[in-house]
Every structure is written in C-alpha cells, then in structure tokens.
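pasting for ref
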Amino acid sequence: MAKILKGDFGKDKPARSGGVDPDKPVPSYRLKLAVPFSDPLIWRTLLVPGRMTLAELHRAIQICMGWGDEGSHQFLVGKIFYQPGFGIEDYERKPEYDEAAFELHQLEDGMAFLFSYLYDGGDGWELQIALEEIIESAGAGDHPLLVDGANNCPPEEAGDIHQYQAVLAALEQGGAGAGTIRLDFEDRGDFDPFFCDNEGINTALKTLVVKR
C-alpha cells in the first residue's frame, strides 16, 4: 500500500457557514482533493452531501480523477483506516471499519484532522483531502458537484506520481530519456496533462445520487 503522508489538516479548522445545531439538516462539505508532489498541482474541489458514505465518495473520486476502479483502495480518516467489505457472499465478516457503513457527517472531526485516499497497492496513488468548508444548509443537493479543478490526472498505468513527473519532464525536453520509463500513456495522442474536463466530470457525477 502507498506510503502515508502526514497532512497538516489539523492546523486550521474549516469555516462553518452557520452555528452548530443538532436540529438542522445534515450539512454538506466542500472538499479539496490534491495529488501530493504533482507539479503543477493536480487538484479537484468537490461539494458533497454529508449523507454520502465513504464508499460513494470513492466512486466520486474515481470519476473526478478519470480512473477505472481497477485497484484496491483505502481511506485514512483521522487515525482510522476504512476499506470495502470483502464482497464475497461466503464471508459473513466484514472489516470493522467498512467504508459503506460510514457517512461523511459521522466523520467530521477526523476529516478536519487528517483525510487521505490511497488507491492501488504498491507504489500506487495518494490523494490528500482537505475539508475546506462545512455548509450547514446542505447545499450540495443529492449528488456530488465538481466546483473547480486543474490539470489532468495521471493514467493509472503511470505507476505513481514520481514516475509520472519524470515522464512529463522527459517529454518536456523533447522526449530525451523518456524511453527509460516504459509507460503506455506516453503514446496517447489525446492525453493533455494540463486539461481538466470539468463539464464531463459533473455530467458523470450526476449519476451518483445520494438518498437516505
């Protein structure tokens, strides 16, 4: 599994749009996803309903990053790892912290402290997730919304961010040295590392309706 990076999300508390009131609706959250060590920074800002589970957030992240959900994944929220259940009917036991059993509003304190998403074992990929705002009006509606983003996410076959950055640097120099790193995406004529398809992402996110 990818190495855990220590976040600094505990330094600043996210801004609230109103006071704390248990009688108010479940809030929404503005989250910023960022790929550590990417240069220029690869990031997405999402507005998500508080009743979204971590499992549903996983699907939203896959859409935002353009990945195919072909590898394993985990969330680190606060000091606890959350992951999928086994998904095999013969196994009745599920992990103690099954991502499908926890909604975001139940993890608010942990999200404000440390929030990471680890995708694909080995070198793999990591996203740092910052809780930027708690919106008491539940303004996200019933599905996640991409507010903004920048730069294309590396294809999964790039390996990890360090290999991806090395390929970009080699390609920037006219391809010199790129042959030392054999990655299929180097020959993708339509891959633009600086493009973020916000419209296409939001169209896909509309299919992730959260109803409780």
